[in-house]
Backbone:
C-alpha cells in the first residue's frame, strides 16, 4: 500500500513550513541523489527522489554545544540498507510495517537511529471494481486519492538510511521508507493498511529516536487521536490515468465526477 502519492510544495516552501534547513533543492556534494526533487508532483512512485525531513548535526557543531537541527534532504523513496552489497537484488522497500520494522534486518538500524518525516498532499489506493458480469472477475480498479480538507498537508512517519556508494566511497546514498499501520475508520474501505501519520505536535519527538524510540508509540496515540484523524481524511475517486506512473499533472487529483465530490 501507499505506493503512490502527491506533493505540490517545493522544497524551499516546505523547509520554511517545517522550520528546517533546505538541502533538498540543491544537495551538498557527496550526497546522492545529487539532484533535488521535481516539483510539483502528482504521481510520485517508488525510486523517485523526494524531499524528506530528518535531524542532522552540522559539522560546525560537532565540537561545540548545540543539538541536531532539522534538515530537508533529497532521498530515494525505497530504502536501501547500509549493508546491501553492490548488485544485490532487494525488494523496493518503500513501505515498512510498524508492527515489525523494529525486528526486520532492513529496518531495525533505522528504527534505532534514523527517523524521518515524509511530507505529502495525499496518497493513492486502488479498489477493484464490480464484475462486468455475474460470476466474472473483478472489474477495472478504481483509484482514490486520500487527503485532508482545505489542502492541508500530511506528515507521514518514515525511516531513512545512509549507505556508502560501493562505486565511490566519497558518496553517501540517502534513501527512505514510509511506515504503515492497520487502516482505521472509512480508510478500511480502500485498503487494510494506511501510512502512519505524525501529529505536528510530536514531529520533533519523532525525529529524535532518543525521545520516541518505538514507532508503535505513534499508533498508540502519541500527540493525537489516530482514529479521529482517519475519519477526517477525504477519499476522492480520481482518474485511472494515475495508474500509469508516467502520467503527471493536477488533473490526476481531481474527482472523476466533480458533482459527486468525495466518495465517503
Residues:
Amino acid at each position: 500500500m501507499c505506493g503512490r502519492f502527491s506533493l505540490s510544495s517545493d522544497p524551499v516552501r516546505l523547509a520554511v513550513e517545517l522550520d528546517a534547513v533546505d538541502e533538498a533543492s540543491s544537495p551538498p556534494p557527496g550526497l546522492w541523489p545529487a539532484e533535488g526533487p521535481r516539483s510539483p508532483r502528482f504521481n510520485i512512485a517508488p525510486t523517485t527522489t523526494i524531499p524528506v525531513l530528518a535531524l542532522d548535526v552540522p559539522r560546525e557543531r560537532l565540537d561545540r554545544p548545540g543539538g541536531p537541527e532539522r534538515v530537508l534532504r533529497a532521498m530515494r523513496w525505497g530504502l536501501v540498507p547500509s549493508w546491501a552489497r553492490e548488485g544485490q537484488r532487494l525488494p523496493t522497500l518503500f513501505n515498512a510495517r510498524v508492527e515489525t520494522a523494529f525486528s526486520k534486518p532492513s529496518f531495525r538500524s533505522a528504527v534505532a537511529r534514523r527517523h524521518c518525516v515524509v511530507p505529502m498532499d495525499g496518497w493513492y489506493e486502488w479498489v477493484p471494481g464490480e464484475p462486468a458480469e455475474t460470476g466474472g472477475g473483478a472489474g477495472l480498479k478504481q483509484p482514490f486519492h486520500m487527503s485532508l480538507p482545505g489542502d492541508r498537508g500530511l506528515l507521514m512517519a518514515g525511516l531513512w538510511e545512509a549507505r556508502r556508494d560501493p562505486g565511490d566511497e566519497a558518496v553517501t546514498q540517502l534513501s527512505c521508507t514510509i511506515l504503515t499501520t492497520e487502516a482505521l475508520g472509512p480508510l478500511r474501505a480502500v485498503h487494510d493498511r494506511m501510512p502512519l501519520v505524525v501529529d505536528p505536535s510530536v514531529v520533533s519527538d519523532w525525529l529524535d529516536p532518543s525521545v520516541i524510540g518505538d514507532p508503535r508509540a505513534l499508533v498508540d496515540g502519541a500527540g493525537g487521536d489516530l482514529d479521529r484523524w482517519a475519519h477526517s481524511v477525504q477519499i476522492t475517486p480520481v482518474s485511472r490515468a494515475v495508474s500509469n506512473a508516467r502520467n503527471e499533472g493536477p488533473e490526476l487529483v481531481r474527482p472523476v465526477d466533480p458533482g459527486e465530490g468525495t466518495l465517503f
